[in-house]
């Protein structure tokens, strides 16, 4: 799979005050990709496209180079204390992606170039919590590995966190271009997680991401580079043949991975809200995603939002099967949660 390059680039003039901003603007200009100034990375106006769907597709191929001015990090409970803001948006087209609703009208890819300021802020948060460990999640609003060949930010963040006795980093990816990260001096402070799924799910619902065998191969290399490793299997879906396919997935994974001491799994079943369903049906009108309300149980989430989850018996069956299969192939792995 060819690494992503944008069709269109915007930059905030202030980004040119930072080495990464200057470098990126010069690089895209030399590649003859249209590069335009924008007053704010929060509100890029004039994106091309006739229809909302065109605009969405073009935005997903548009890069915005900006400066993160508000350095108040969002919380990222329960698996980390803070979200570290390196980028937002993603060029992938996963039909079920939560960014569809969370990024709203800003689906473009945004890279922040003031990394030193972001790291200073992270250090402050670490000091505030000392002697407790402080964990930072880098994939709350983007897939940082997918754009690493452009920004190089993740490598710097991994090395920064390697120097923090009380700082930890975690992120998740569906991209396999991990080569540039294998030599980073991580000191075991970064948990490198891959999002994986049954062939059926990858094939029908994850266009624009790395093929599954590439992700598995990348995970093997990351394990060999000594990173603490993790897998998120999400969304787990119930479809004809799901048990065979999830078992085959775990078997393939165990064949490729070396013996690792520190391995985690996070398991999330498929769910949706009505607002997500509306957006998905607009943007991926031919999707085969099963969002039949009649076959779901309603579950109240925060802010009064209703999530449509699988009925209890089906959830129990999935949970039991996934736990048993993971412990067969990875007896020493820790399953952090099933939801
Ligand atoms: Fe969303 Fe991740 Fe897919 Fe990107 S790779 S579209 S962030 S689910």
Low-confidence parts, pLDDT < 50 over ≥5 residues? none
The count of helical stretches stands at 11
Task: Note the gap between the termini.
Answer: 32 Å
User: What is the rounded Rg?
Assistant: 20 Å
Alpha-beta classification: alpha/beta
Series of H and E elements: EHEHEEEHEHEHHEEHHEHEHEEHE
Bound ligands, each once: iron/sulfur cluster
The backbone outline, from C-alpha atoms, is globular
How many β strands by DSSP? Answer: 14
Helix content: 25-40%
Proportion in β-strands:
15-25%
Major beta sheet, strand line-up: 4-7-8-9-10-11-14
> Residue-averaged pLDDT, rounded?
96
Largest sheet: 7 strands, parallel
EC number: 4.1.99.14
Keywords: Lyase
Organism: Thermoactinomyces vulgaris
Protein name: Spore photoproduct lyase
Structural overview:
A seven-stranded parallel beta sheet has the order 4-7-8-9-10-11-14, covered by helices on one side. α9 packs parallel to α11. It is built from eleven helices and 14 strands. The protein starts with 7 loop residues before the first strand and ends with a strand. β12 and β13 form a beta hairpin. It is globular and about 55 Å long. It is an alpha/beta fold and 339 residues long. The longest helix is centred in the last third of the chain and has 18 residues. It binds iron/sulfur cluster. Iron/sulfur cluster binds next to loops. It is an enzyme of class 4 (lyase). GO terms for molecular function: lyase activity. Keywords: Lyase.
